[in-house]
Every structure is written in structure tokens, then in C-alpha cells.
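Hello K.,

You asked for the raw outputs rather than the summary table, so here they are, unedited. I folded two proteins back to back in the same session to keep the settings identical. This is the first:
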Amino acid sequence: MKKLLLLAITALGILSCTTQKITTMTNAPADWKHTTNIYEVNVRQYTEEGTFRAFEKELPRLKDMGVKTLWFMPITPISQKVKKGSLGSQYAAHDYVSINPEFGTLEDFKHMVNEAHKMGFKVIIDWVANHTGWDHVWTVSHPEYYLHDADGKFHIASGMEDIIELDYSNPDMRTAMIDAMKYWVSETNIDGFRCDLASWVEVDFWEQARPEVEKIKPLFFIGEFDELDNPEYGKVFDASYTWTWMHKTEEYYKKDLPLAELKDLLQKYTAIGDSSMRAWFTTNHDENTWNGTEYEKYGVIAKPLAVFSATWNGIPLIYSGQELPNMKRLEFFEKDPIEWNGTYEMADFYKTLFTLKSNNPALRGGDPAATTTILKTSADDKILAYVRKNGNDAVLTVLNFSKEAVSFTIDDANISGVFRNVFSGPVKDFAQDKSFYLPIGGYAVMAK
């Protein structure tokens, strides 16, 4: 990896007080971070128009569904040189401080953010700090901001020929990047950033950038990295991805792995602690396009995994169209709208989960007062059952992770009392009845 010239940066006085500021920001003040969910918006494919104004009309529906935080894929202009497809990748920026005209104008975006705020949403944008497109304005004005190969050419990002990598040993480039991030907070009043390929950028840049940008307002930072692999990044970001879990669950389903392997992996995530949170998901823009829809990847356990994402310790992340449900792989470099049909079959499913997540203290992500316990069942090779507790509040989640219907009991000292099923309403008193039946793809979520 590229290494920062520490003496040069220190001379600029940038690293002073970083640790104190980072600690303050990642531990709250914004309580909403611990009860939120994130809905990824693919503006290009969301509507036929593919604009901010067209998407804005969907805000009331998403509010009713319980969505709390809107994450917009990159909103900056797309480089035309070496672009892929007819429209190019949204992750190949031409300019960090302009709006992609495909989506509308800066005023359109500001209007949408303002309307979203009025409805109670938080808004975060994708931030692509590792690389730009080939004709980014910096390639002309500041070619020294980039890594160069031995022949002097811009260094192509690994496996992605339409993007070139920036040089984080250059303090001026770092300052310019931070200024660009500040621009969006100051100009449009966004609430944070989803940081693309965060671990491809030196962690000390994020340590430098976050407190500087947060001089404007407290922000939410979610990083595209897995803290199991990059623990040093956890001290900067509020939440991180769970790539290991996502890949392991797909492997579990397709290769019939022992359920014990998933439970062991969850213990490793738990061992990270609560100074940061994990974001759990079954699909996103990359997975949907390149690896398949959630139903291609997970088959009959897709819905149980979605329930898991909203009830385990952390925050749930869903992608445009999952409320349909979307069974289609969306094109990445071409116009390929989601096939909305006016019926949102999964909307109530997500509304139930998101409402419970927001309102029940037992499901607060990253709260040291909340505990998660995997329960003993009579079918531990097929059933994942766990209880989250916070004071007098408790949420029991029971998931059928097998490919068959299962009858079983939960006989565990960690569960007792009366619980109500949040989806169907029935009440279960564990002093009287510890039995369960879950069909294929079945789940139960019960609150105390």
C-alpha cells in the first residue's frame, strides 16, 4: 500500500488531536445512528427518468416503509474517457464537486435533500476516495495527485481499467479531497458518507479527514471494509461491511456447510465489540449486478437472512427494489430501470423489521448495554435462534436456515417469559410452550 509521508503531514499540523476527535464522533452524539437502517438508492435505475426529482416522489412511500437513512450511489459526473458501456460507471468520477447531469442539477439534489430532511430521513452520499476516472479535472490541473507507473502513466486500479488511483502520500491531494467532502456537507447539508473501498485508502487519511469535515456538523460514516480483515479502520467509522458473512452465507447455502460455521463466524464479529457497528445485508449494487440477486445467491434462506440483518447487533442495509422483491440483475453501465409494478410485496415485511429496530432498545446497534445470545435448540444444525436483551426489553429471533420444514424446541435458560410475534401477533409463554414449527424459509421475531 501507498504510505503517507508522516513528516510532511505533521508539518502541516493535520494530525494533532485526531484521536480525541475521532473517539468523540464515533461514540455518538447522534443517537439515531444506533437505531437506523440504510436504503441504497440507485438513481439511474430507480425510475424511467433516472433523476433526483423523479426519485423524490418515492420519499413518502419509503418513509411509510420505515426507511431512515438514504444512501445515494455517487452523484458526481462520470468520466467519459475509457468509460464502460454507454453511460459509464458512477464510481469513475470526473469532478468531485459537481453533479452528474444525468441525475439533474445541484438545485434538484438540494431540493431532494431538503424534502427528505423534512420527512425525517438522513441522507448520505457515496464517496469514492481511492480513485477517479481518466479525465477527472485533477488529471489536468494536478497530475501529481495520482500514482504513476514507471513509464509515467497513471496507475490503473486493480482489475478496473476505467479508473486510476490517487496518491495519498501527497498532502495537497489529501487537503483537496477533504475540501471536496466539506463542500457537499456545507452546500447540500448531507448527513454523512458511505466510503467506497475505504480500506484501499490509508486509514490515517480517514483519521485526518473525519474530524476536519465534522467541524461543520456531526456525520455518519460507513466504510466499505470488513472489520475482521481491517480492524484498524474500525476506530474511524461508525459502521462497516460484513463481506465475510455475506460470502460465507452464500457458500453455506450452496455447498450445504454446517450451520455451526456461521455461528462461529458470528462469535468472531461479536468479539470486535461495540465501539463500531456492523452493517448486515443480502444484496447491494455490486452483488446484484455481478453475483446475482439475493434469491439467486441464497434461495429459500433469503428472507431469514433479511430478518437476521435487522435483528442481529448492528444496522440493516437494503438495496433499491428489495421491497418488490426484485428478481432482476440490474445493468451497471447502461440504463436498466427497476421493473416496478405498483405492488410492493415486501414493504410490510421491511416496515415491521425497521419499526422494531427503531423502537425496541434491545435492537440498538453498537450499544454495550444490549447483549446477544445464541440459544440452544433441539435442531441446532438447522435453526439459528438468538435473543437480544437491553434492560427489560428483549427480542427473540428464530430462523430456519435449512432447506426443509423443521419442528423443534427452544429449551435454554436464557429465554423465559411471554413474547409476542411481531409479524403475526400470537403470544408464546415459554413457561408453557417451548415448541416451534418453521416451514421452508420460515422465521419468527418475538418481542417481550
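The second followed immediately with the same parameters:
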Amino acid sequence: MAVAALSWSGPADAQSAAEICLTVDQRLSGDATLPRTAAALKANGPLKIVAIGSSSTLGLWQSDPAMTYPGRLLSELKRLKPDLRLDVVNSGRNADTIPGNIARFDRDVLAHRPDLVIWQIGTNDVTWLQSADALTGRIAEGIRLLKADGADVILMDQQYAPVILASQYSKMQRSIADAARQERVPLFSRFELMRRAMDAGLSMGALTAWDGLHNSAAGYECTGRALARAIVTTAAAGAQTPPKTVRRRK
């Protein structure tokens, strides 16, 4: 992995890199809707979002929580919907995996009683050479656990970064997409967002940190803001679909 050979952008380029990345206009995949989120947005809240995942969610290399992708998601949703009563909980954990995420659902996700869960997955599972095939069923299982409690669910896949590209990333990408289709939940493809931003002229280092794996400040910004826009667009498109009545666990 030629991490040292990447062209890294300096701090002055961070804002422009994020704006260039946002021009690729990433959307959520598939026909799945976000009925509970749509209802909350229409009513100006309250809307509770929980982001669960690994260090990409926690925001490794960012000392300010507002600079993580969940922090950027929060600020962009507030910009788009100034009157929205909104809470975003960051339940990321360094080095976590898909099975590790599922084991934390009760404590770190469902205890917050979320309307929407964003589940970022796949990076550590592939990096540590676990079988993507074996994990497909676990992803679907996790989605069902979250949906059974009444929450909307969005999956977020891997990042487009040197460490990922040197792994068996394509099998994991297929597994994530297959699970999303199987369980009829939207997929926010961070991988495609970053890849298309490179096609638009950004260097790998503009959105990727020095370690060749995690996002730079601009990468976190683009991910969070693009996801916020995708949520608002998807919710508006499905606003006519009433949310299902689900009895929450006591």
C-alpha cells in the first residue's frame, strides 16, 4: 500500500475539497423509504438519530465531535431544517466489527429509542480478513433487530481509501448491498461518493487521512453533509407513506 505516495491536501483545501465532493450529489439507494424519519421531519421533530459503527463513525483523528460525520450530519440537517428538534447520538467505537456492533445494539442504540439508525459497517471486518460471505447473514440479522424496535435504518458501506482498496473489499461491498436489498433498507454508499469525488478531480488525500484508511476533515464533512441531504430528499419522496405502528420494547 503506497500510502506515502498519496497527494495530501493541506488545511486550506479542506473546505473546497468538501464542496467539490458534495457536487457528486450522492443519494440513498433503492426504493426503500424512511417513514418514521419522514413523519418526524414533517412535524419538525423531535427526531432522534443514532449513528453506530467503528472508528469512521467515532471520527478518528478529529478532536472536535462537531467535525465527525455524525457532527456534520447534525449541522447540515439543522441548516436544511432550521426549526427541526433534533438529536444525533454518536455510538461509534474504535476497531469495532459487525458482530461487535450487534452485541452493542441494546445498550448503545436501542436504549436511545431512535427514529433513525445509521449503521456504518464492513471496514474492520474486511481489513481483519473475516469472510464477507459469512457476515451477510449477520448484517441482515442486525437490520431486523433494529427495524423490529420501530426505527428506520440506513446502511453505510466502506470508504474509498488505499487500505480498503488493498483488501477483498468488493465481496464486502456486495454483501452490504445484498443485505440492504434483502431487508429493504436504503444504502448510503460512502465508497461511491468518495470514488466519484476522485473522478471529479480530487486527490485521494483530499478526503483520506494520513493513515490511508480514515477520512480527512473534508472527508467527514462531505460524508455527513451528503448523507443529511440524502435523508431529507428520501424522506420528502416518501412523505406520503405513513409510518408503521410498532410496539417498542419496554
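The CA atoms of residues 5 and 191 lie 21 Å apart.

Happy to rerun anything if the numbers look odd on your end.

Regards,
P.
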